[in-house]
UniProtKB/TrEMBL annotation:
Topology with respect to the bilayer: Multi-pass membrane protein
Gene3D superfamilies: bsu07140 like domains
Protein name: DUF421 domain-containing protein
Organism listed in the record: Kushneria konosiri
InterPro entries xref list: DUF421 (IPR007353), UPF0702_alpha/beta_dom_sf (IPR023090), YetF_N (IPR048454)
Amino acid sequence: MTPILHTIVVGTLSYLTLIIVLRVSGKRTLSKWNAFDFVTTIALGSILGAALTSTKVSLAQSITAFVVIVMLQFLITFISIRSRKVLRLIKSRPTLLLFSGQYCRAAMQRERVATTEILAAIREKGMADVEKVHAVVLETDGSFSVIGSAGDNDSTLEGVDGFPGR
């Protein structure tokens, strides 16, 4: 088989296989990225790239590599749900950046978040007054959660780094 034909055949079949494997593996594989998801996605892209450009990589190798990466991702997430140690190893914790209208400057510096980013997140929620914001949390996927008013017990802030608790 010529290199061009190999790229067309193996690339097409690898691409289709990747789509099928991702669909079968569930929504977790395609969730918002944290560092663990980023590594998985890069690995899958690298495998697809090798399948498309290298005549030394067979279709069987590509499919096996896709399945191995997705199965490892599934296995690690399966274990992380059952083990706090594994969960802490692969996922960061959310971080409190603003609480009761006050910036958590040390957390902002540690997470490399600028005040302007927090203000943008607050504006996105349609809020105009920082002092009326109960909390802004930097989530594990890098997104911001804005909580507009205090609840009775702040239960959504449990497990957030920097939450003083009550």
